[in-house]
Design brief:
Helix content: 40-55%
Shape: globular
Distance between the termini: 26 Å
Strand order of the largest sheet: 4-5-6-7-8
CATH class: Alpha Beta
Number of strands: 8
Number of domains: 1
Amino acid sequence: MAAVDDFAPLADTHCHLTHPRFAGQADEAISRAKAAGLAACVTIGTGTADASRARDLARSHPEFLAATAGLDPFSSHAAGDRFEDEFERLSAILREGGFVAVGEIGLDYHYDLDPKPVQAARFERQLDLAASLGLPVVVHVRDAHDDLAILLAAHPRCRGVIHSFTAGPREAERYLAMGWHLAFNGVVTFKNAASVRDAARLTPSDRILLETDSPYLAPVPHRGERCEPAHVTFTARAVAQARGEELDAVARATTENARRLFRI
């Protein structure tokens, strides 16, 4: 790993430091991230209980860590008939403050979760909530790009990021045309991810972000290990190589984009 002063500070815009795999070790992971050259991280709250934990953790690292809150397809599915109660709790904690975005929220057709119309309705409720609060949105999507694009087009007041972008140029251009950011993680380092690198190459410098999705999707050479925010440096190098740019230029652009989008 390069020395910290070899490139501008980086930002990991999507990690899950409240995940059980970081139990009792989040502070250590944050220390390693700082040592690796990170200036900021955004830890994602999935479900209201997790969001409260994320906010508490962020408040213990106010100059480095920010938190989000949302009902992702998995926590929405887990809520079942209690979704309305969970949505009201989500609305309440977001209005209390301490969060920089609504998310992650979205559509997931890969797993056997809620029917598509139910996922869409719950997603749209949260898009409307984000718009009413003036907060950006962190979007989860898997095997649902066409439906997602239709829903985002119907909510032009919303802004934000398609997190863990692992599709190709066609999908990238569609989201970019609507003004959304794209966030790339360790997948961009995988040998079979040429289309993802193509998407990273065409993303404008003012709309590209970096993330880890820790503890998932560790980049090469850590593939198969628990991912953590410090690993975003490997993703940054892969993105820089794909774009034919210096690492420092990618670091500066992506960190500035993160600060502007999330107001951190």
